[in-house]
Amino acid sequence: MKTENKNLQPRPPIVVVMGHIDHGKTTLLDAIRKSEIAAKEAGGITQHIGAYEVEHEGKKITFIDTPGHEAFGKMRSRGVKVADIAILVVAADDGVKPQTKEALNVIKSSGTPYCVAINKIDKPAADVERVKNDLAHDEVFLEGRGGTVPVVEISAKSNVGLDQLLETILLLAELEDLKYDPGAFASGVVIESHLDPKRGITSTLLLIDGILKKNEYIVAGSTMTKTRIMENSNGKSLDSILSASPAVIVGFDTLPPVGAPFRTFFSQKEALDYQRYTKEQATASLNNSKKNNVKKSLQEDAQQEDTNVEPSVSIAIIIKSDTEGSGEALMHEIKKLQAHGFTIKILRIESGDVTKDDIALASSAEHPIIVAFRVAIKSGILELAKKSKVELIRFDIIYEVADYLKKRIEELLPPEVKRTHIGRAKIAKIFKGEAKAQVVGGKVIEGKIKRDSRFEVLRRNNIIGDGRVENLQSGKLSIPEVEETQEFGAFTNSSITITENDILDVFEEETIKRSL
Length: 516
Known about the structure:
By secondary structure, the protein is of the alpha+beta class. It has helices at 25-33, 37-40, 73-82, 98-110, 128-137, 162-176, 268-307, 324-335, 356-363, 379-387, 398-412, and strands at 9-10, 14-19, 50-56, 59-65, 85-91, 114-119, 151-153, 179-180, 187-196, 200-209, 212-213, 217-220, 223-226, 229-231, 240-241, 246-250, 261-265, 313-321, 342-351, 368-373, 391-395, 416-434, 437-450, 454-459, 462-474, 477-478, 481-483, 487-494, 503-512. The strands form six sheets. The protein has a seven-stranded antiparallel β-sheet. The chain has a six-stranded mixed β-sheet with strand order 3-4-2-5-6-7, with helices on both faces. β6, α5 and β7 (151-153) form a beta-alpha-beta unit. It starts with 8 loop residues before the first strand and ends with a strand.
């Protein structure tokens, strides 16, 4: 029989904000926090998970802002896994979009309680009823329409309906009866992690249970630190942080994996023992993964040999990003570009500035590209990249990376040659010449043949060579084409010497620039 923990106390709700790109998620948080987050986002797109604390009527709420762009699907999913409540933001002037549906599926599959915020109701093109009808088609049954899902009509920009939204969140939280153990060591999940040039490895942790205190030891994944520098979401240094709050920690020995659970220990020995255990588990998992990858690679090689299709172009990419989460999202976006005819090799993916070692690694590969996503590029590094013939491009917006790589791949891809069969001719007589310059006579037995068309030579139904019709004649007149049943004379350029009774299988070729 499980013993009830009588030390449990109420804790604030952790709320995830989800929805389609440009539907106002960050602007909503901006209005709630009365800050200027949205104005600082590159291209108007949130590119990390941020965790922020706010207070409404004396009660705290922790918000997680997840990116809306399709490439950040894993990050959105991670946000829901640690959240108690979700807000699905839908723009009144745009309606339900693909990422709205994707976010909704993530919310439903996780079983997270949620409410709908219909944003931008003050826009001229706003149509709240259309949005509600669209949601009903996706089996979102709202309050007031026979359902139980709360809905709030808001304008984040004009600060309309926000109090009602916060009250709705607190009501949902009350129904969930959220608790934490103040006597427990802190545990939770890594929300974000990056290498700060001045402070070192800086990570945002979200506490799910317990209290995090200074001078304790944190193990996240297989990395560890002592809590010497500990701040809240506003950058204020604290000695302790309560459950359901974000904590900024500086000092991990390596970058903690985004999404990794963390545990806290009082003694260094306990932390080291647990770190050793997690490393052993990670190594075992990696070895299994490598075995599966080798098996998959062998299967793909065998399949490629069967089909005799070899990739014609290979590009090598190094990804240097500001955070682990950004790198993960970039990988997702790049994988979508993979198609027949070329391969993409990821040489390295890590957070931090571009280094000489990155240039050296890239320069050893074919068609190397270094993607520097929201990280610094020193002038010396840029010069080294040019000398090493390595493309080094800096980006601030996720979809610009995909657009650039798509264009670059299309430039490298050889054109596709489309062949169209137009006719057949039987050779009746050889007048003069051999192979490269031969005059033949014959009759069109199927379709037609044209000047400048290409042909394959069939002898006893076997292809033995190919060539081109350089000129056609009927009598003494030069003509552009000859129709079925008609006789002709032709000047040919062939890879073999044509003989009587050979069949010319005639076709036209069109060169088409490939696109992804």
